[in-house]
Amino acid sequence: MTDSDNGPRVDDGAGTTASSSLPLDDGDIHVRQDGPRDAPALLLIHGTASSTRSWDPLVPLLTAAHRVIRIDLLGHGRSAKPADRGYAVPDQARRAGAALDRLGVGHAVVVGHSSGGVVATALAEERPGLVTALALVNTGPHLDAFIAPQTGGDGPSQWPPTDEQLRAFASTGFSRAGYRFPDELLDDVRAMTLHTFTATMRGTLAYLTERALPDRLAVLGKPLLVVFGEDDRRWRASSAADYRVVPGARVELLPGLGHSPLLEDPVRTAVPLLDFAALHTVRAG
Q1: What pTM was estimated for this model as a whole?
Q2: Per the omega criterion (within 30 degrees of 0), is the bond before 60 cis?
């Protein structure tokens, strides 16, 4: 593992913050770690066209009790963006599992935002011994729950995208029009290639077409938390109830928040996550 940020930094007394690159078979994977290394592991997986930076507002609220691990999925953020590798959901899940193996993590509560929840589900399918519990944040359960975008909201029509196209694409990620999407997250979209962007979108579509997430999760026997901004403009918030077919599933709706509650109101988002994780974390040892 190579350090890409000139060593660790202090993280408000909760542990260290480290940014590193893990060389995997398919390409280097960028990893961020925050909090005490001996604390229970919490893996955060971002959505399509995003990165570890989408979790920045939330992470400081989680590190008192957790070793918080974030990865840039292949093709995203500061990870490699090869044109000759697969971007199907199971491939991304396999890499996430390999990253945890390289970090010496044997058990983790896995949290996924949007399509990151799809990857989290696939990770639980492929590595049930690694995933102790799952939390999905505004992850659509099936394609019938998708809200058809208005003009300009389904993704950039050219590459690289213009600023106007980027903001149109990002606008549905929040509960209200006019919310200013962080510039650094727009940079994450620009940093992708057309191939990695379209291949990732196709991979998520194929996985959800094959089988709905609640059906997949119902047979896994993993504790499940579903957090959904009630004003989501990409996925019908009412569809969160479909996850109740999973035995014991807990569903939390957050009024006044949209598709990205981790950015819009990290404090309200952290409350159910911390409560859930406290029940299901396994301490390193």
Answers
A1: 0.91
A2: no
